[in-house]
Amino acid sequence: MPRKTNPDAPAKPRARRPASKTHPPTVAAGATAPASVLPAAATSNAWLSGDDYYWFHQGRHLRLYDKLGAHVTAAGVQFAVWAPNAETVSVIGDFNQWTAGAHRLTPQGDSGVWAGLLPEVKEGAIYKYALQPRGGATILEKADPFAQATEVPPRTGSVVASPEAYAWSDQEWMGKRAQANGPNSANAPISIYELHTGSFMRVPEEGNRSLSYRELAPRLIAHLQRSGFTHVEFLPVMEHPFFGSWGYQVTGYFAPSSRYGSAHDLMYLIDQLHRHGFGVLLDWVPSHFPNDPHGLSEFDGSHLYEHADPRQGFHPDWHSCIFNYGRHEVRSFLLSNAMFWLDRFHADGLRVDAVASMLYLDYSRQPGEWIPNQFGGRENLEAISLLRQLNEDVYGNFPGIQTIAEESTAWPMVSRPTYLGGLGFGMKWDMGWMHDTLAFFAHDPIHRKYHHSQLTFRQLYAWQENFVLPLSHDEVVHGKASLLAKMPGDEWQRFANLRLLYGLQYGQSGKKLLFMGDEFGQGNEWNHDSSIEWHLLQYPVHAGMLQWVKDLNNAYRTTPALHQLDFESRGFQWVDCNDTEQSTLSWLRWGSEGDCVLIVCNFTPVGRLDFQLGVPRAGHWREILNSDAVDYCGSGQGNLGGVWSDEGAITINLPPLGCVFFRHEP
């Protein structure tokens, strides 16, 4: 796309491709580049080189956060912002009474970048950019797109900060995380606790405020230890003006939300989680951004970050702007942003939100409301290219990380390598499993035999992708009710059904995800304005649910057959998938060394005594999990620790609305 230039700018040729460069600069895994330092006598653009401009305009600059924005140096604060349609750009703030024109930046040739060094500005200063668009009389006041700190909403100013100065102490985790978390973790247990920072736990004695990042650390770690999860996934922590968006309407892409503290405070939280052995995933939102006046929308008076045509640049579902993925500078912005959270904040992975909305030009649009691609199709070729480049770049620079796609369609090869034609993600949420399974459980047990295929259909596609089985925040909001409230029957049956649902989830192939509150059977649907219902744990039935989830997580982590071959068909084998009349399912999970677990589920409240099943091995089958155990407030029907197999068959006691796991012991 042609860039507008400033006719008054000093003549300076566009940076040419350096002869020695054949690829963009990269970052070693886990490394942090030193902060740029501008000597006092240097010119204002000394920290921006020809290489920087070249790779920025090529869409291949991966470290723009080191170059654009506000950076503290020994000589003052250096500012740089991309605004090619601006006539003038100045920095306004509490240091100049917000006076436009008092501290002007200089255009850097025809690069579209404006830069300058302000010696009198200090760390902690609040600022914005005052931009005079070409041919426009109205001065725009915009927050810095690369600000690494912001004022606490509803205030919208950017804050000069130096988060790179944090002293990390998670070297042990960072050195070994690839096996537990990254691309080599296919055979590792990954059980994810999804969390909204602002409503995990509140302080009612202080106006029901949210915990800070530092206050959250010990409480979250204690709960993860108590419940047995391996990873925590945070709903977006990037700055967002509307709290009710849960972070999915981002304005500060490079700034953690100041509602809960500083960047150093968030780093402390992640550091502590790593030191206690927990992986950290961050939700990342490259699909859209809000049109708040201080944000990216019409940033310099032009549609700089978004498409100008609303058929491409406006999202009808969220009434927000869609990034122009074909514009090289926007690609550099997004790629650098993904790298930023992995580099500066030691995130172990990114869960990429709303990927389906990026892939399809006609997503949520009627005929005539979208523009086909150059071949006449509905695929967004620029977004596809960006996602592939994203995965190549982040895995190439941070081998120990994981990318996870929230992709709700049957787009092929989402979690397959780009060299095979895939999108290159490490894993994908199995939204089909979630919808089918919750629909099945909503039926009264007497009718479930007519909907049996909702549970078995998944096995037709279960290994086409590397799947995560999600029971996420989206399933417990907007009138959908909590998971517990979705279950039919009286109170005992609702809890039994929910324990059965979790047993089914953990027995299936795929990594696991539960949203906060689900682990102890929260009664009400999630409300972001209040804490989850911790008081329920005083009641045995809720404490029993938490114990069940803990035991599922522990068995999942310590039993090879339950996690080693999550992404391979040889790790799963039906015993009986056709018992529709009794509404039972039974299958085997296999480990890579021959370890074997039998899982049997009964989806009716009728217990099955002397229930016979074929098994592949003679010997003792130890009962390692039983959702009907008294410890979980079940009815206590079980198998006295295990059963013996003679001539390839076993006879078990299958409890009502129950799930039992048996591990073969030679």
Summarize the model shown:
The chain is an alpha/beta fold.
Summary tags:
disordered N terminus; alpha/beta; Immunoglobulin-like; 22% helix; single chain; 666 residues; eight-stranded parallel barrel; 13 helices; six-stranded antiparallel β-sheet
Helical residues, percent: 10-25%
For the residues shown, what is the average pLDDT?
Answer: 92
Low confidence ranges? 1-44
Provide a count of the helices.
13
* Structural Rg: 27 Å
Give a structural overview.
With 666 residues, the protein is α/β, with parallel strands linked by helices. Among the domains are: 50-161, Immunoglobulins (Immunoglobulin-like, Sandwich), CATH 2.60.40.10; 569-665, Golgi alpha-mannosidase II (Immunoglobulin-like, Sandwich). Helix content is 22%, strand content 21%. It has 13 helices and 30 strands. The strands form 8 sheets. An 8-stranded parallel β-barrel has the order 9-12-15-18-19-20-21-22, surrounded by 4 helices. The protein has a 6-stranded antiparallel sheet with strand order 23-24-25-30-27-28. A hairpin with a 5-residue loop joins strand 10 and strand 11. Helix 1 (50-58) packs across helix 6 (328-343) and helix 12 (491-507) packs parallel to helix 13. The longest helix has 19 residues, at 540-558. The chain is elongated. The model is unreliable at 1-44 (pLDDT under 50).
Explain the layout of strands and helices.
Layout: H1 50-58, E1 69-73, E2 76-82, E3 86-93, E4 106-107, E5 113-118, E6 126-133, E7 140-142, E8 158-159, H2 171-180, E9 191-195, E10 202-203, E11 209-210, H3 213-227, E12 231-234, E13 238-239, E14 252-256, H4 263-275, E15 279-284, H5 310-313, E16 314-315, E17 320-321, H6 328-343, E18 349-352, H7 355-359, H8 381-397, E19 402-405, E20 427-429, H9 431-442, H10 453-456, E21 467-471, H11 483-486, H12 491-507, E22 511-515, H13 540-558, E23 572-576, E24 584-590, E25 596-602, E26 608-614, E27 619-626, E28 642-645, E29 649-654, E30 659-665
Parallel strand pairs: 9-12, 9-22, 12-15, 15-18, 18-19, 19-20, 20-21, 21-22
Antiparallel strand pairs: 1-2, 2-5, 3-6, 4-5, 6-7, 6-8, 10-11, 13-14, 16-17, 23-24, 24-25, 25-30, 26-29, 27-28, 27-30
